[in-house]
Amino acid sequence: MAKILFTGASGKQHNDKADARAKINRINDSTIIINSLKKSGHTVERKKVTWTDDLSEYDIGIVGIGSLGSPNYANMMNALYAISALDKVIIFHEDWKIQGTMKGLKSSIDKLEKMLKKQWANGNYLYDDADKADINVLQKVMQDIIDGKYPVLIPGYDWGNKQIIADILNIKKEHVNNIDLSPYVLQSIYKDPCYSGRTQIPEDRELKYMLAALTDNRPWVKKLKLTYEVDYFGCKAIETAEILEDELAVFETMNNYWGVLCPAYPQAGSGWFRMRFMYSALNKNIMVMDKQDCDALNIPHITKIEDYSLEDLQEIAEQQSQAILKYSTSIDQFDAKINSIVEKYL
User: Fold this and answer.
1) Nearest Cα to Cα of residue 162 among 180, 145, 178, 146
2) pLDDT in tens, 135-185
3) In this structure, are 114 and 42 located in the same domain?
4) Residue 21 contacts residue 3 (beta carbons within 8 Å)
5) pTM value?
6) Given a cut of 60, is residue 188 above it in pLDDT?
7) Rounded to 10 degrees, what is the CA torsion of 94, 97, 99, 101?
8) What count of other Cβ atoms lies within 10 Å of the Cβ of residue 41?
9) How far is the C-alpha of 227 from the C-alpha of 154, rounded, in Å?
10) Neighbours of 166 (CB within 10 A)
11) Considering its fold, how many domains does the chain have in total?
């Protein structure tokens, strides 16, 4: 069994208590991975690394990174130090905005001195421990990431073309390691790891759309030219958007709608993890998603539910549900996979 360091650029990655402050009330990805590895017998230490820390005691590290300049990733410089100081490391890309992460590294590598001096109005540095950072070390590890030196761990389903991710991150496809977090998410919200979905579609399900997201996706929705009503949830920028209490509320609310909207994203077709896929499949909603995702799942591309009768909608919903659930994994399968990923790079 290995001694593993789990750290990263965000509080969720390096702080055990970060769940309490999360905007999305569910077990976070880092906690799922850490708990699973501990179940397999590994010693896992989750902590915030600072410059000059001796990391030689660890057999391997899992280090999360994100976009430079984002306050969510204030610990980025310490995370980069951890990557440089570890003998063996897997980079964790938790944020779906991986194109922005890579773009930020490339554009910032020659501007580090200026970036490290940036401060908030209260005098605190933008980046944690920026005054202790070694620019030469940072530039080297940033270039190594740009050059695809390190294997990566991503939240992702087993369907989809992982070459899309490999191309964005400039690494070999065999070093893109995906994990489907849904069995642990379902266990955390339903307290039932064997939950297998709805058996009946409600007779009063509304011919409307639901979109639950923290960001404002109205410009994307406008392009869809829908005629049925769209109800928004979770986005504070939309005055009419209801803030749902937790993930269980999201899941249960989805059951009231025929249509579920899945906003476009750059790595469509890759099977990037989005819990709405699983929720929709279990509820037997119809998800309006990117054509590349439909192609990856080998299902027809549905652009709007207005074009179909209720009988058609039932058939389409069943088809989508089966296509997604065909790839579903159990908690035991998750545990075995994350353990095998770590052992692969030891």
Assistant:
1) 178
2) 999 999 999 999 999 999 999 999 999 999 999 999 999 999 999 999 999
3) yes
4) no
5) 0.93
6) yes
7) -60
8) 9
9) 36
10) 18
11) 2
